[in-house]
Amino acid sequence: MSTRQSVLVVDDDPFMRELTRVHLEGAGHAVALADGGAEGVLKARALAPAAIVMDFSMPGLSGADTLRQIRADPDISKTPVLMLTAWSSDASRREVENLGATWLEKPLSGEALIDAVGRMIPS
């Protein structure tokens, strides 16, 4: 996996993982997948992706908890994270943004996803 344009997609929903993968690979990114927060942290540590796209609402380790673990690890703490959510509260949004992640609400177009990831990865 090319570190420069690699993206780790963390989502418990298999359909959303696959849809996100298809959009990002179509834009030229190498994509790795994780089916939840715990696996996402492990893969982020192992792969050191250029960016992470993550669902906010996941069973077990939530998106916010996963983000906290990523930010606490000096090897991956600076990795740009795009947090996606189908529901939004001001408190959740502030929490995620205070942890240095970008917040986008679903549904979003493939174009919006690709644009957001493109802004996170330096060219």
What does this structure look like?
The protein has 5 helices and 5 strands. With 123 residues, the chain is α/β, with parallel strands linked by helices. The chain has a single domain, classed as Rossmann fold (3-Layer(aba) Sandwich). Strands 2-1-3-4-5 form a 5-stranded parallel sheet, sandwiched between helices. α1 (14-26) links the parallel β1 (6-10) and β2 (30-34). The longest helix is centred in the first third of the chain and has 13 residues, at 14-26. The chain is globular and about 30 Å long.
Structural class: alpha/beta
Multimeric organization: single chain
Query: What is the assigned CATH homologous superfamily?
Result: Response regulator
Query: What is the domain total for the residues?
Result: 1
Main sheet: which strands, in order across? 2-1-3-4-5
The chain-level mean pLDDT equals 92
Q: How many beta-strand segments?
A: 5
Contiguous helical run count: 5
Biggest sheet architecture: 5 strands, parallel
Give the overall form: globular
> Which CATH C-level class is it?
Alpha Beta
Q: H/E element string?
A: EHEHEHEHEH
Distance between the termini: 17 Å
Which parts are unreliable, with pLDDT below 50 for 5 consecutive residues or more? none
Q: Radius of gyration over alpha carbons?
A: 13 Å
